[in-house]
Amino acid sequence: MAIRILLSTRLGERRWTQADLSRATGIRPSTIGDLYHEMTERVKFEHLDAICKVLGCEITDILLRETTEYPRVKSKNGKPIS
Residue 80: beta bridge partners? Predict the structure, then answer.
């Protein structure tokens, strides 16, 4: 089982860059980048709330629980996070 972060998809649908989202939410660009590339182990609720407000979406539009054998979220060194 894995949790997918669909931020890249949502930004693409709106033709927004990571920088656009960072400016609109006040979230650091590096944090947005980690979420965008699914390279994070933790997500602050306040960040999810800010992203949802700015994008006009629900949390379920950003996060997806996926049943898979292997996690898709990777650490910064490229190894899967278990």
Answer: 74
